[in-house]
Write a structure and sequence with these properties.
Elements (H helix, E strand, L loop, with lengths): L14 H7 L5 E5 L2 E11 L7 H14 L6 E6 L7 E12 L19 E6 L2 H16 L5 E12 L5 H11 L4 E6 L10 E6 L2 E6 L2 E5 L1 E6 L4 H13 L1 H19 L2 E5 L5 E4 L3 E5 L2 E5 L9 H8 L7 E2 L1 H11 L10 E6 L4 E5 L3 E5 L2 E11 L4 H19 L5
Antiparallel strand pairs: 1-2, 1-7, 2-4, 3-4, 3-17, 5-6, 6-16, 6-20, 7-8, 8-19, 9-10, 9-18, 10-15, 11-14, 12-15, 13-14, 17-18, 19-20
Catalytic activity: chorismate = isochorismate
Keywords: Isomerase
Family: Belongs to the isochorismate synthase family.
Length: 400
Amino acid sequence: MSSPALARPTPVHRAADLLAAYLPGSFYFSSPRGSLLADGVRASVRRERGSWADAAAGALDAAAALGVAEPVVAGAIGFLPDAEASLVIPAVVRRAGAPERGTPDEGLPGFGTTSWSVTPRPEPRAYADGVRGALELIGAGGLDKVVLARGLELTADAPVPVPALLARLVRADPGAYAFAVDVTAPGDPATRTLAGASPELLVSRRGGTVVANPLAGSLPRSADEAENRRRIAALLASAKDRREHAHVSAQVGDVLSRFCAELDVPAEPEVIGTPTMWHLSSRITGRLADPADPGSSSLALAEALHPTPAVCGTPTAPAYAAIAELEPADRGYYAGLVGWSDVDGDGEWAVTIRSAEVCDRTVRLFAGAGIVAGSDPEAELAETSAKFRTMLRALGVEAS
């Protein structure tokens, strides 16, 4: 039995209607494949042992046994192996096609005269020192790449309107993997929302077809098109960036080969763009060996892939250790995974980047850069500043 496609031939709802209907506490996810809005909680997914995919499969089976038609699990999982997660079986799920392209800010509420205070965590100079520390670890051997992140904590003079933020993110880049997830901790009276517009597909599954689209190797986008052409050419010619990308695409291919009878890993990366960045990209596609195997659900594939070297490093264990040593703050949900999976195993999971956690007047966001031999601390600092621009622009904040 195959699940219905996220983008149905004749959607019941319009993508714009689902976006307009989002309220904090709901789950929203949109991509080039379609849009999904889920409300209410029929059941929360709890993991006593084993994988989140196993726990989700049990919850989905239980919902189906109770007569729930086409149940899905939706939510987010944090970066660390024992990180927090927010996965639920929603009470109501609505679907539509992909968001339509239009003028990014036309008809959208802005943040007006909102006043912001911005606190970097750590200070930029300390981050550059952390990159130097990572290069020393790489030079000592045993570590090929590590992704170092830094954070910004923003405080507004009024509560941040998450629906307006989400709408601005979707309209700015309708092709992104946009999301808003309630990640409020149990017992916390303040609603906490994870929102973002990720450019990176961790994995999707539809029937027996799987797709992953790792990104690694980046340059900021310019307002000048001639300069953009130069940067695209420079990215394709950069030995450092191609080496960084190769670490990621090779590992993603190795993991998916355990599940797939056929797998196509491009020999050369291409460049894709977002409104703020250019990225080296490899679109990896495969055919599952056994689509009926519960161990090859979209969430199971996502867990097997996470963390890719695009957000952690390689080898994984030394990279985790380097992050723990060099990053001053817990990433939380940043660089984890966000998405949905249905009872048949189909679904989509994106890497939780270009994101922020919003709680009342506070916005907490991260950006990271991949450090390999030859990395320049100042260039990596500039890259993180450029990556902050996705969220900062949506919030109406100029400086990073």
